[in-house]
Write a structure and sequence with these properties.
Length: 351
């Protein structure tokens, strides 16, 4: 039976990834190391609580001793690192936790993994992989005329979040070049889909619109992101884990560039159809002060992963956003527990 150590698996993408792994392979075990910050929600994986192939450890990737104990006990075949502080606005309000987790945490995870690998028998160590999940934001911002980001685009991070992710990516790269440590890195565009925390654009707009609250649009609403359904991101990570060349980076994107205004208008139209009593939802759109240093456009050229590994996204944006709006409408208990803060009661010791 193969074992994968996933970090940050109580968050949005990590929880989707763990569910996908365990549904695709019956002979797989997953250990999920998660600090359970505000973004870590055990309800994201409530359906796996009774699955004995899944185990969660509450802890910090920056705790090298803990990571070493987990590695020695479970002897995973791969580590997949999702753990991060992930929200740009929070990084502007307070950069330090971003450096602690995204840079130092990744360093300690790498270091514990490198020491673990050194003690493995050669057949097991040859198969071992460390996959680091990163972002397209490390490449900076594009003008409307620029070609999309690709694996050779120079790094130019503009926010404390993207700077911390860039720092982590460089450490991962250095472990391959210096120690021959078997790393893979993925740089992905904006994800959306089930279980995304409603501080991010799409779930925030869906839940605010349902509650009749304002829909805050930063600046002129013309910033562009390349949207990818989370299941497509997870299948891309799986593809790289299985077949990626060691030391390489792979860009993953949705071929789906949209302005923020287009996103908000699409959500409003879908809600007008599904909840006509509250229409028109777009009357809630409100222009607010822009995000400082707001990157204008991201776009990903994912031809490398397509040509080398045969991966491409399956969801069209139209299909994915309709499914996502439905998911938020159908999972009102999850939404209420997140918006009320109830999902944190156990962690905070509140009965
Ligand atoms: P998220 O904020 O939803 O989840 C992050 C998870 O990491 C949470 O469960 C949190 O508790 C955990 N965590 C935070 N600090 C930790 C620490 N020190 N030790 C252990 N666990 C810790 O994030 P997400 O949107 O699921 O993103 C996952 C990864 O994918 C991140 O590395 C992010 O940079 C990257 N990424 C995200 C997107 C996106 O659009 N959301 C796109 C590209 C890449
Ligand atoms: O590109 C990948 C990145 O995408 C990931 O690395 C990050 O972890 C993830 O958070 C995301 O970053 P963004 O800053 O692009 O996502 P966010 O959902 O915060 O914002 C998307 C766009 O919407 C951005 O242009 C800012 C705008 N926005 C966001 C919010 C929360 C608004 O106009 N209003 C809002 O209230």
């Amino acid at each position: 039976m193969k074992t994968v150590l996933v970090t940050g698996g109580l968050g949005f993408i990590g929880s989707n990834f763990i569910r996908m792994l365990l549904s695709e392979e019956s002979s797989l075990r997953v250990i999920n190391l998660d600090k359970q910050t505000y973004a870590g929600n055990p309800e994201n994986l409530a359906d796996l609580e009774c699955d004995d192939r899944y185990q969660v450890v509450i802890g910090d990737i920056g705790d090298e001793g803990l990571v070493s104990r987990i590695l020695d006990e479970h002897e995973p075949d791969a580590v997949v690192n999702f753990a991060a502080e992930s929200h740009v606005d929070r990084s502007i309000d307070g950069p330090e936790p971003f450096v602690q987790t995204n840079v130092l945490g990744t360093l300690r995870l790498l270091e514990a993994s490198r020491k673990f690998l050194a003690g493995l028998a050669s057949d097991k160590s040859e198969a071992f992989r460390f996959l680091h999940v990163s972002t397209d934001e490390v490449y900076g911002s594009l003008t409307p005329e620029d070609p999309a980001f690709c694996e050779t685009t120079p790094y130019a991070p503009n926010s404390p979040y993207s700077a911390s992710k860039a720092g982590a990516d460089h450490l991962v790269r250095s472990y391959f070049h210096t120690y021959g440590f078997p790393v893979l890195t993925t740089n992905c565009s904006n994800n959306y889909g089930p279980f995304q925390f409603p501080e991010k654009l799409i779930p925030l707009m869906i839940l605010n619109a349902c509650e009749g609250k304002n829909l805050p649009i930063y600046g002129d609403g013309g910033n562009v992101r390349d949207w990818l359904h989370v299941e497509d991101h997870c299948s891309g990570i799986r593809t790289v884990l299985d077949g990626g060349r060691l030391g390489e980076t792979y860009c993953i994107g949705g071929n789906s560039e949209k302005t923020n205004m287009e996103i908000v208008d699409t959500i409003c139209s879908l809600l007008d159809e599904k909840r006509p009593d509250k229409a028109p939802h777009d009357q809630l759109k409100t222009f607010v002060k822009d995000r400082p240093g707001h990157d204008r456009r991201y776009a990903i050229d994912c031809s490398k992963i397509k040509q080398e590994l045969g991966w491409e996204p399956r969801y069209s944006f139209e299909e994915g956003i309709a499914q996502t709006v439905d998911w938020y409408l159908e999972n009102s208990t999850w939404c209420e527990n997140v918006t009320s803060g109830n999902y944190q009661r156990e962690r905070l010791g509140i009965s």
